[in-house]
Amino acid sequence: MNDTVTLLTRRADLAPASANRDNRTVEVIWSTGAPVRRRDMAGQYVERLSLAPEAVDLSRLQGASVLDAHRQSAVRDVLGSVQSAAVDGQRGTALIRFSSRPEVEPLWQDVLSGILRHVSVGYSVEEWAETTESGARVLTAVRWTPHEISLVPTPADPGAHIRMETHMTDITTPPEAQTRAAINTEIRSIARIAGLDQSWIDGQ
Protein backbone atom coordinates (compact mmCIF):
# COMPACT_ATOMS: atom_id res chain seq x y z
CA MET A 1 0.00 0.00 0.00
CA ASN A 2 1.40 3.42 -0.94
CA ASP A 3 2.41 5.86 1.79
CA THR A 4 -0.04 8.71 2.32
CA VAL A 5 0.00 11.91 4.33
CA THR A 6 -3.47 12.83 5.55
CA LEU A 7 -4.55 15.34 8.20
CA LEU A 8 -6.80 13.69 10.77
CA THR A 9 -8.04 14.58 14.23
CA ARG A 10 -9.10 12.72 17.36
CA ARG A 11 -10.56 14.04 20.55
CA ALA A 12 -9.48 13.18 24.08
CA ASP A 13 -9.87 14.65 27.56
CA LEU A 14 -8.00 17.09 29.75
CA ALA A 15 -7.22 16.03 33.32
CA PRO A 16 -8.26 18.94 35.54
CA ALA A 17 -7.15 17.12 38.71
CA SER A 18 -3.59 17.10 37.33
CA ALA A 19 -3.48 20.89 36.87
CA ASN A 20 -0.64 22.92 38.34
CA ARG A 21 -2.06 26.39 38.99
CA ASP A 22 1.32 28.04 39.46
CA ASN A 23 2.84 26.66 36.26
CA ARG A 24 -0.48 26.75 34.36
CA THR A 25 0.03 23.17 33.18
CA VAL A 26 -2.30 20.20 32.83
CA GLU A 27 -1.86 16.61 31.67
CA VAL A 28 -3.53 15.27 28.55
CA ILE A 29 -4.04 11.71 27.34
CA TRP A 30 -4.38 12.44 23.62
CA SER A 31 -4.66 8.90 22.27
CA THR A 32 -5.28 5.33 23.34
CA GLY A 33 -5.22 4.01 19.77
CA ALA A 34 -8.88 3.04 20.03
CA PRO A 35 -10.63 2.18 16.74
CA VAL A 36 -12.44 4.97 14.91
CA ARG A 37 -14.73 4.45 11.94
CA ARG A 38 -13.85 6.60 8.92
CA ARG A 39 -14.61 6.66 5.20
CA ASP A 40 -12.47 7.06 2.10
CA MET A 41 -13.09 6.63 -1.63
CA ALA A 42 -13.14 2.85 -1.20
CA GLY A 43 -15.82 3.03 1.50
CA GLN A 44 -15.90 2.66 5.26
CA TYR A 45 -12.96 1.39 7.24
CA VAL A 46 -11.83 1.14 10.85
CA GLU A 47 -8.80 3.25 11.72
CA ARG A 48 -6.38 2.30 14.45
CA LEU A 49 -3.25 4.04 15.66
CA SER A 50 -0.19 2.07 16.67
CA LEU A 51 1.22 3.52 19.87
CA ALA A 52 4.47 1.59 19.69
CA PRO A 53 7.23 4.16 20.34
CA GLU A 54 8.88 3.34 17.00
CA ALA A 55 5.59 4.04 15.15
CA VAL A 56 5.04 7.58 16.42
CA ASP A 57 7.22 10.55 15.43
CA LEU A 58 6.90 13.00 18.33
CA SER A 59 9.36 15.54 16.91
CA ARG A 60 6.58 17.87 15.72
CA LEU A 61 4.58 17.62 18.94
CA GLN A 62 7.41 18.45 21.34
CA GLY A 63 7.04 22.21 21.86
CA ALA A 64 4.08 22.46 19.47
CA SER A 65 1.29 24.99 19.91
CA VAL A 66 -1.92 24.29 21.78
CA LEU A 67 -4.60 25.74 19.49
CA ASP A 68 -8.19 26.91 19.71
CA ALA A 69 -10.19 24.23 17.82
CA HIS A 70 -7.38 23.65 15.26
CA ARG A 71 -7.46 27.28 14.12
CA GLN A 72 -4.04 28.60 13.12
CA SER A 73 -4.67 31.74 11.12
CA ALA A 74 -3.66 34.23 13.83
CA VAL A 75 -1.46 34.47 16.92
CA ARG A 76 -4.59 34.71 19.08
CA ASP A 77 -5.42 31.12 18.10
CA VAL A 78 -2.46 29.90 20.18
CA LEU A 79 -3.61 29.10 23.72
CA GLY A 80 -0.37 27.59 24.97
CA SER A 81 2.30 25.04 24.15
CA VAL A 82 3.15 21.37 24.57
CA GLN A 83 5.82 21.07 27.25
CA SER A 84 6.44 17.34 26.81
CA ALA A 85 4.91 14.38 24.99
CA ALA A 86 5.36 10.62 25.15
CA VAL A 87 3.92 7.28 24.05
CA ASP A 88 4.27 4.04 26.00
CA GLY A 89 2.67 1.47 23.73
CA GLN A 90 -0.75 1.92 25.34
CA ARG A 91 -1.43 5.65 25.18
CA GLY A 92 -0.09 9.02 24.13
CA THR A 93 0.32 11.63 26.86
CA ALA A 94 1.39 15.25 27.03
CA LEU A 95 1.89 18.06 29.48
CA ILE A 96 0.50 21.31 28.10
CA ARG A 97 0.99 24.83 29.41
CA PHE A 98 -1.54 27.62 28.98
CA SER A 99 -0.55 31.18 28.08
CA SER A 100 -0.85 33.91 30.71
CA ARG A 101 -2.39 36.34 28.19
CA PRO A 102 -5.53 38.01 29.59
CA GLU A 103 -7.75 36.61 26.83
CA VAL A 104 -6.67 33.04 27.66
CA GLU A 105 -7.33 33.38 31.39
CA PRO A 106 -11.10 32.58 31.18
CA LEU A 107 -10.30 29.37 29.31
CA TRP A 108 -7.69 28.39 31.88
CA GLN A 109 -10.19 28.96 34.68
CA ASP A 110 -12.76 26.80 32.86
CA VAL A 111 -10.14 24.05 32.55
CA LEU A 112 -9.45 24.24 36.29
CA SER A 113 -13.15 24.02 37.08
CA GLY A 114 -13.70 21.09 34.72
CA ILE A 115 -16.01 23.00 32.38
CA LEU A 116 -13.58 22.73 29.46
CA ARG A 117 -12.11 19.23 29.37
CA HIS A 118 -11.92 18.11 25.75
CA VAL A 119 -8.89 18.26 23.48
CA SER A 120 -8.22 17.05 19.95
CA VAL A 121 -4.93 15.95 18.44
CA GLY A 122 -4.17 16.72 14.81
CA TYR A 123 -1.92 14.20 13.07
CA SER A 124 -0.75 12.92 9.71
CA VAL A 125 -0.19 9.30 8.69
CA GLU A 126 2.85 8.39 6.63
CA GLU A 127 2.32 4.62 6.46
CA TRP A 128 -0.71 2.37 6.83
CA ALA A 129 -0.99 -1.39 7.30
CA GLU A 130 -4.24 -2.75 5.84
CA THR A 131 -5.95 -5.90 7.10
CA THR A 132 -9.45 -7.37 7.11
CA GLU A 133 -11.34 -8.37 10.25
CA SER A 134 -14.78 -10.00 10.08
CA GLY A 135 -15.12 -8.69 6.53
CA ALA A 136 -14.30 -5.10 7.51
CA ARG A 137 -11.29 -3.13 6.28
CA VAL A 138 -8.92 -2.12 9.05
CA LEU A 139 -6.21 0.49 8.47
CA THR A 140 -3.59 0.74 11.19
CA ALA A 141 -1.27 3.75 11.23
CA VAL A 142 2.17 2.20 11.70
CA ARG A 143 4.12 5.38 10.96
CA TRP A 144 2.44 8.65 11.92
CA THR A 145 3.11 12.13 13.27
CA PRO A 146 1.04 14.14 15.77
CA HIS A 147 1.29 17.85 14.90
CA GLU A 148 -0.68 19.81 17.48
CA ILE A 149 -3.17 19.63 20.32
CA SER A 150 -6.32 21.77 20.35
CA LEU A 151 -8.88 22.73 22.94
CA VAL A 152 -12.31 21.82 21.50
CA PRO A 153 -15.95 21.91 22.68
CA THR A 154 -17.00 18.53 21.30
CA PRO A 155 -17.28 15.35 23.40
CA ALA A 156 -14.44 12.88 23.77
CA ASP A 157 -13.71 10.38 21.00
CA PRO A 158 -13.48 6.61 21.46
CA GLY A 159 -10.79 5.60 23.93
CA ALA A 160 -10.66 8.98 25.69
CA HIS A 161 -9.36 9.00 29.25
CA ILE A 162 -10.59 11.03 32.18
CA ARG A 163 -7.75 11.44 34.63
CA MET A 164 -8.82 11.39 38.26
CA GLU A 165 -6.68 12.42 41.23
CA THR A 166 -6.32 8.95 42.75
CA HIS A 167 -7.29 6.66 39.90
CA MET A 168 -8.00 6.59 36.20
CA THR A 169 -11.33 5.76 34.59
CA ASP A 170 -11.35 4.67 30.96
CA ILE A 171 -14.42 5.54 28.91
CA THR A 172 -14.66 3.85 25.53
CA THR A 173 -17.38 4.86 23.09
CA PRO A 174 -18.15 2.67 20.05
CA PRO A 175 -17.15 4.24 16.70
CA GLU A 176 -20.84 4.47 15.73
CA ALA A 177 -21.39 6.98 18.52
CA GLN A 178 -19.40 9.75 16.85
CA THR A 179 -21.59 12.82 16.73
CA ARG A 180 -22.34 14.89 13.65
CA ALA A 181 -20.71 17.86 15.39
CA ALA A 182 -17.50 15.88 15.87
CA ILE A 183 -17.43 14.88 12.21
CA ASN A 184 -18.06 18.49 11.11
CA THR A 185 -15.19 19.65 13.32
CA GLU A 186 -12.85 17.24 11.53
CA ILE A 187 -14.09 18.42 8.13
CA ARG A 188 -13.45 22.07 9.04
CA SER A 189 -9.98 21.26 10.35
CA ILE A 190 -8.98 19.44 7.18
CA ALA A 191 -10.47 22.18 5.01
CA ARG A 192 -8.44 24.88 6.78
CA ILE A 193 -5.20 23.00 6.21
CA ALA A 194 -6.17 22.46 2.57
CA GLY A 195 -6.72 26.21 2.14
CA LEU A 196 -10.39 26.01 1.15
CA ASP A 197 -12.57 29.10 1.12
CA GLN A 198 -13.47 30.31 4.64
CA SER A 199 -17.14 30.80 3.73
CA TRP A 200 -17.36 27.13 2.75
CA ILE A 201 -15.60 26.08 5.96
CA ASP A 202 -17.98 28.16 8.11
CA GLY A 203 -20.93 26.44 6.48
CA GLN A 204 -19.87 22.97 7.62
Automatic annotation (TrEMBL):
Report the domain of life of the source organism. Bacteria
Designated name of the protein = Prohead serine protease
Q: Which Pfam families match?
A: Peptidase_S78
Spell out the InterPro entries in the cross-references.
Peptidase_S78_dom
Keywords, alphabetical:
Hydrolase, Protease, Viral release from host cell
Query: Does the UniProt entry include the keyword tRNA processing?
Result: no
Instruction: Please name the GO terms of the biological process aspect recorded for this protein, alphabetically.
Output: proteolysis
Q: Name one GO molecular function term.
A: peptidase activity
Location of the Prohead serine protease domain: 52-166
